[in-house]
Amino acid sequence: MELPAPAAPDGASMDQLADHLADLFVLVKVVELKSFSKAAQASGATKSTVSKQVRRLEEALGAKLLYRTTRHLALTEAGELAYRHGLRIVEQAAALRSAVDSLQEAPRGHLRVTTSVAFGNLHLSALVAQFLARYPDITVALSLSDRYVDVVEEGFDVAIRLTSNPVDSMVARRLAALDYVVCATPAYLAAHARIVMPADLAAHNCMVNGQGLDDTWRFTREDERCEVRVTGRLAVNSSESLRQAVLQGIGVGLLPTYAIDADLRAGDLAIVLPDYRVEGRFGNSVHAIFAPSRFNTPKMRVFIDFLLEKFGAGSGLWSGPGQE
């Protein structure tokens, strides 16, 4: 049965009563031990301090809570209500402490993770499934988006981000190297002018990952460095959409190898200029990005350690011929 809440005195708000929770805890201790002296000893306080706390609580509630004699204590009707409500709060506080302690001891709880659409579909989704099998007390909400996600503002625990320059205010754990290649279908390459040097790309339909229809691609080979201004008929801000366009055989694309791994292995796409290393739009690394405070929980620690284990053992981010 629900207990009625003690009435606050005139002009006393619940916020004011909240300031006396410590006093309420002391009342519970006094009643349980049936002694101000024993309650003071158990709390590490003096008897006079305990007496003052009980008096403060009586003033806040506007009611006498205890009848005190030299030989025993007795609760008033208001004191009985205050004690029973106080006991419930003490029990819930203990339950909260226990729940928080259990989170610190064992990996459990909920994780919110975000990454790009292509990377999530091709790599992270499978890894998350393996992670959940290993840690049955953890749940994961995986959000795939090609827009920039503010991890803190949007309430995510961690973002798996492709970048060379993580945000300074966040913790960044490097998971894997990120490689890129220029590629096209074998049919396209057979039907168009040969591409022997980066400069030859100027004569081709070079589709770009971005908002503009022109871009600069940067190549290195040993000590040789060069830049080529390329143009094309398609610009799209999605690796997966760019991959689909390249597979249609209408032009050349610069793509991360993780997005076209299966296509390269199947022979549906071929690498152009395999002797050159090319810079990509997203940088050269895959990072786990999270706020410093997030790493304190076991669920986050095991998730980051799991990703480091999997990517370190070979995550499928295939580098391709000439890109090792």
From TrEMBL:
Pfam families: HTH_1, LysR_substrate
Signal peptide coordinates: none
Listed InterPro entries: LysR-type_TF_proteobact-type, LysR_HTH_N, LysR_subst-bd, WH-like_DNA-bd_sf, WH_DNA-bd_sf
Species, as recorded: Pseudoduganella armeniaca
Keyword Transcription regulation: yes
PANTHER family attached to this UniProt entry: HTH-TYPE TRANSCRIPTIONAL ACTIVATOR TTDR-RELATED (PTHR30537:SF5), HTH-TYPE TRANSCRIPTIONAL REGULATOR (PTHR30537)
Residue intervals of the HTH lysR-type domain: 21-76
Keyword Hydrolase: no
Sorted UniProt keywords: DNA-binding, Transcription, Transcription regulation
Family per record: Belongs to the LysR transcriptional regulatory family.
Protein name listed in UniProt: LysR family transcriptional regulator
GO molecular-function terms, A-Z: DNA-binding transcription factor activity; sequence-specific DNA binding
GO biological process, alphabetically ordered: DNA-templated transcription
Lineage: superkingdom: Bacteria
